Amino acid sequence: MLTKAAKPLVKLVDRYLPDPYIFVLLLTLVVLVAAMVAEHKTPLEVINYWGDGFWTLLSFSMQMLLVLVAGFMLASSPPIKKLLDAIAGFAKSAPQAIILVTLVSLAASWINWGFGLVVGALFAKALARKVKVDYRLLVASAYSGFVVWHGGLAGSIPLTIATAGHFTESQIGIIPTSETIFANFNLLLVAVLFVVIPLVNRFMLPEEKDCIYVDPKVLNEAGAENVPLMLDGDSGKDNSNRPADKLENSRLLGWSVGGAGLVYLGYYFWVQGGSLNLNLVNFLFLFLAIVLHQTPRSLLTSLNEAIKGGAGIVIQFPFYAGIMAVMVQSGLAQSISEGFVAIASADSLPFWSFISAGIVNIFVPSGGGQWAVQAPIMLPAAQALGADVARVAMAVAWGDAWTNLIQPFWALPVLAIAGLKARDIMGFCLMQLMITGVIISIALSWF
Fold first, then answer.
1. Whole-number Cα distances in Å, 199 to 102, 191, 352
2. pTM of the predicted model, to two decimals?
3. Residues 405-440: pLDDT tens digits?
4. CA-CA-CA-CA torsion sign (40, 42, 48, 51)
5. Residue 230 CA: distances (Å) to CA of 50, 227, 304
6. Where are the alpha helices (DSSP H) in 167-234?
7. Dihedral sign, CA of 57, 58, 61, 66?
8. Which of 10, 143, 162, 312 has the fewest CB within 10 Å, making it most exposed?
9. CA–CA dist 267, 402 (Å, integer)
């Protein structure tokens, strides 16, 4: 049944969903016009909001580019490739491959969202080299696990309100993670999704005549061989004894610097008691890659391959920063949230918070940024209606994560690693959006 239901969605998305760059351009125009019409802003005011906010995500853009590059370099190191291939060997059929990649992605995303994006995509490629399976659904399954990230250990909203000095502390105090991430309703929701999402992906597996496979040979991450440049008249001369060549192929150099990075990580986690965040994930991936590649030359060869997939991140993230600025500065995001709050009761507020957060996330794809927009509306409403503040906060968190299933913003690293386009996977993700939306709504309302 799910195979038949997913088929028209896949065709619809394949036909009408444009490249993510075109999507962000259209989204920009929609937000600019909406701010002028709905919030009665002048064209010059809206353009100023957009231009002033255009470069505010530069730091985050670099972080996301490093998620892609560092993760790729780590996975292309010989030991990690062997490990991924060994785990992929447990899958003996297409259904098993779909379930396995979904479970791995869910677990990794629950630990940390950046970790989940990279691990899921890389593991999907490892499976595709072992098992004949529809590659589109395999990658979509890897991405679908991302939906649990905001209910997991790195959820930005629950961690924010659990931290002393957060910007809404005067209103709600400090809410411990025992009432959010580790609350019974949230743990039960995560457990249900760990069962449902892999099964949905498995039963969306197309009939063999409709499957699209990939040649395993094109999935090898090994880059082109390094070709040494030679001056005129040096043809045939052995340059292997050049000091520069020795440095590029020095295991001692790679191990020394890589080892220093790992020592720092050990001190940070075990002595200082530090927590995992995106910078630490990138630091871990990078220095593990340096150690496991052994020589600088091997790492640089991998880097040259990895960087090719980062173009979408570099060009699109500034546009999303501009969109976020218009949504916030014009009051458009607040108006969307207020519209849902106006029809809510104490029991239904978590549900409407979830729906409004899902809509706002299409335009403001940032958990922390979205909370800054919605908290001033949702928290006073929760207090006035007598609703559970912790549950309302988690509803916003889940809404932020939910519509990422159809928001190409977060799929860019996965698509770059897998070598696919957004339209290749979004039809399957649209089915997951509908099913998980029902489950999350029930959990927030009745669990």
1. 9, 13, 27
2. 0.79
3. 988 878 888 888 888 888 899 999 999 999 999 999
4. positive
5. 50, 9, 21
6. 169-172, 184-203
7. negative
8. 162
9. 36
